[in-house]
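ok so i was messing around last nite and threw this chain in just to see what happens. nothing serious, just curious
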Amino acid sequence: MSALGKFWLSRMAAVLVGVCVFSVMAAAGNGGFVVTNDDSPMGNLQFNTNSVSFYAIGANGLLSLQQTVFTSGYGIGGGYFGANRLSVFNSGGQGCVFASDAATADIAGVIVSSFTLGGTAAGSANDTGASNGIGLASNGQYLYASFSDSSNIGTFQIQPNCNLTFIGDVTTVGMQGGFIDAMAAQGNLLVVTYGDGSIESFNISGVTPVSNGDKQNSTRALRTNGATYPSAIVITQDGHYAIFGDTSTTADVEVSDISSGKLTTTVAYHSGASISSSNIVLSPDETMLYISDTQGDRVSAAFFDKNTGKLTPGCTSNPLKGESSAWSYLGGLALASQTGTGGGLYVGEYGLPASIAMVQVSVTSGKCSMKEGPGSPIADPNGSGLLSIGNFPPLP
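result:
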């Protein structure tokens, strides 16, 4: 059976999705940026503290380094794959990129309009992420930080000039004692993963997270006795589904219906065609789920039905250039366009220096194809173990 035929073995034949938008990277050029948390560590004389780099997306989809803003803190050059070290804010005439500095346990706010540092903020005295990083998530009003060492969720109020004010901490651990990994926020719901196979949601209507009492082990974690565990999280725009990208020796994605305001038992989609799926992103029209095979050498896609929450087989790229010789792992994903199926993918490549792969995506008549584009990869000269990239302006 072909790789496509084996994709999502737990599901039967693919359901053809009507006529999808044909998209290639040449359809980009929306004037936006791909943004990186370069995660530069302390003591590395090659770098002047950690930094946030802005890459302009050209009309042909090619990236060009526009500006690098130093955060005054330091990263760790690694950590959990699924923890997003960036949070992008664009509201009330204020555009900010928040980036965590795990080694110095602070969060930097970068003012996008001037490419300057607005300020930095820290949590409580015991909030640290020096071992596995600090993940970030925002519901558009408040910023939440997952301090992986103390397993605290820190709450921060977003202030003018991209400053933050610390409000307080909530300590939480997984069902097997795992520390907090990744987070995603939508409206009044905050969803977290723990790195031990368990997941949980919190009500943030009162600002500080309050558990919904739905902590549970994921379906794949139970089936594999913990060998597979949810890491990255994406929530659909209507708040109906939470999608989890798992860290695994295969490729696993799980979907939970959260329309009740709580997590439900995850529906698992499994493939032996790739290695791990610890970073994911939905296309703007939510018809495609893109998957970074973080411990492999390629990216994948599946068709997503936002009405039913079901995934069906998609496509997988050829191996991306430079594995082992130039980079060790694949990291986060960004999109070339804020419309349709996303116009193409950008993939963080964990190396020294880091790089960003550019992947062309074609989607039509319920089929897709992916291949690395000309001119790929683009060097991220300040990157030291790049894991988190994103888009500014933020996707809808």
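not much to say yet. Confidence is low (pLDDT under 50) at residues 1-29.
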